Amino acid sequence: MNIRYVFTTHKNFSTLMVFLIWVLFLFFPANLAGGSSPVILAFGNSLTAGFGVPDAQSYPARLQNILIENGYPHKVINAGVSGDTTAGGVRRIKWLMKNNPEIVILELGANDGLRGLSLQEMESNLEKIIFVCKENGAKILLTGMKAPPNYGEEYTVEFEKTFFRLADKHKLPLVPFFLEGVAGIR
């Protein structure tokens, strides 16, 4: 997949942004009582970091621009690291909580799937991240991903089920496939 194409030219990327904003504000109304801008932490891998595109074209930057254009005071922090796995996310999340995010968009797991890593370990790691976010008062928007078929049907199906299980267990809103309407379209 040409990541530059996905983020810079595809009209459905705007649909993804509108959907993310809708979910964010439906499930997480802003707490503006403190007077400071609420923080949204975009926490993920290369899809969040915007690998291969200018910084201004990453989804967190585009989300920030849409929020500004529509009068929302939120600050979006891009905490994407290309190549990151859920294990890397566990190592990074506590440090990132110093930003006091109100909302965390959790977009990790794709690289675990691409590498065929243990699904039990991936689920455990995502759960650790969820616990840290909740302990720090952050609300979480979980985003799912699809695994490539080369590891077999059982792995692929179980990979996708992981995100649904976690969303159900922790009562989190879920975007079942982060790249829905974006990936695979030419």
Question: Which key terms come to mind for this protein?
Answer:
186 residues; alpha/beta; Rossmann fold; five-stranded parallel β-sheet; 8 helices; disordered N terminus
Quantity of strands, as a count: 5
Compute the average pLDDT: 85
User: Could you give the order of strands across the largest sheet?
Assistant: 2-1-3-4-5
Order of helices and strands: HHEHHEHEHHEHE
How far the N terminus sits from the C terminus, by CA atoms, comes to 9 Å
The Rg value, from CA coordinates, equals 16 Å
What is the approximate shape?
A: globular
Helicity level, as a percent range? Answer: 40-55%
- CATH homologous superfamily identity: SGNH hydrolase
Strand content: 5-15%
Q: Number of helical runs?
A: 8
Parts with pLDDT < 50 across at least 5 consecutive residues: 1-11
CATH architecture: 3-Layer(aba) Sandwich
Helix/sheet category? alpha/beta
How many separate domains make up the residues? 1
Largest sheet features: 5 strands, parallel
CATH fold-level topology: Rossmann fold
Characterise this structure:
Residues 42-177 form the SGNH hydrolase-type esterase domain. It comes from marine metagenome. GO terms for molecular function: phosphatidylcholine lysophospholipase activity. This is SGNH hydrolase-type esterase domain-containing protein. It holds the Pfam family Lipase_GDSL_2. The protein is an alpha/beta fold and 186 residues long. The chain has one domain (3-24, 42-79, 86-175): SGNH hydrolase (Rossmann fold, 3-Layer(aba) Sandwich), CATH 3.40.50.1110. The protein is built from eight helices and five strands; from the N terminus they run ααβααβαβααβαβ. It has a five-stranded parallel sheet, sandwiched between helices. Helix 8 (153-170) links the parallel strand 4 (139-143) and strand 5. Helix 5 runs parallel beside helix 7 and helix 7 (119-135) packs parallel to helix 8. Mean pLDDT is 85; it is low at 1-11.
